[in-house]
């Protein structure tokens, strides 16, 4: 466990992105933080018990990204999510099980996505990694590393590079519009109304997008995975938190 996972220190706005984990169960919060400890360019902190009740207070003021449990003392924290998102924080919500109404309520409140703790780190870590990559932040180790010496010149030709498996698929404008709207909407029916197409057509576009990512070696089977791909490829822009 990193040093930052024990308390919430001051954040100067420089250096790594500060990810705050908020959960009334400290054991769960520490477990989630341990999943994120190895993310490059990030420092993970866990809100102490006295700060869990109001994540939009000290924790929300210091952290750039909030990873929080949806339920606190039996009630969904939708107002808290809304206040954090309005303040410019990226919010990723997790809970035991995620159904369509829950996901719609969470994203409607302003969170980027809602992931299930049943899926564990496989669902949560890629989303956070994509957020960090989109911000362009570098960890202290990368920032302070000594530059590698340039290789000596050789007379023999360099070997041809191996073809890259992971690449950005070629998506049509309609596929991009449908994907972005769906990631920001509670249901495919909402997307269909906005684009004036049928829900079946929305589903067809999303199947095409997922197939193209699969062919590129970057599967996106779930909504959280597709959100990760969209952030990685710049389809959804993640803004930096204000200083």
From TrEMBL:
GO MF: DNA binding
Source species taxonomy: Bacteria, Bacillati, Actinomycetota, Actinomycetes, Kitasatosporales
Residue ranges, annotated region (Disordered): 138-171
GO BP, sorted A to Z: regulation of DNA-templated transcription
InterPro entries named among the record's database cross-references: Sig_transdc_resp-reg_C-effctor (IPR016032), WH-like_DNA-bd_sf (IPR036388)
Bias kind Acidic residues: ranges: 147-165
Protein name per its UniProtKB record: LuxR family two component transcriptional regulator
């Amino acid at each position: 466990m990193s040093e930052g996972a024990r308390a919430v220190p001051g954040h100067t706005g420089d250096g790594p992105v500060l990810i705050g984990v908020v959960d009334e169960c400290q054991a769960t919060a520490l477990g989630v933080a341990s999943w994120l400890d190895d993310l490059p360019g990030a420092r993970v902190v866990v809100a102490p018990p006295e700060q869990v009740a109001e994540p939009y207070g000290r924790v929300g003021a210091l952290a750039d990204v909030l990873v929080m449990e949806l339920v606190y003392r039996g009630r969904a924290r939708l107002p808290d999510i809304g206040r954090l998102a309005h303040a410019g924080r990226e919010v990723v919500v997790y809970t035991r099980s995620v159904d369509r109404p829950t996901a719609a309520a969470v994203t409607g409140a302003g969170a980027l996505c809602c992931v299930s703790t049943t899926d564990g780190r496989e669902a949560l870590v890629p989303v956070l990694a994509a957020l960090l990559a989109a911000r362009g932040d570098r960890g202290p180790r990368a920032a302070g590393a000594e530059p590698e010496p340039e290789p000596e010149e050789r007379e023999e030709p360099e070997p041809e590079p191996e073809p890259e498996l992971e690449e950005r698929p070629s998506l049509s404008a309609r596929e991009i519009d449908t994907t972005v709207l769906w990631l920001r909407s509670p249901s495919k029916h909402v997307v269909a109304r906005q684009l004036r197409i049928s829900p079946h057509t929305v589903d067809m576009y999303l199947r095409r997008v997922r197939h193209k990512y699969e062919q590129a070696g970057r599967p996106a089977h779930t909504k959280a995975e597709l959100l990760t791909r969209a952030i990685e490829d710049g389809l959804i822009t993640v803004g930096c938190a204000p200083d």
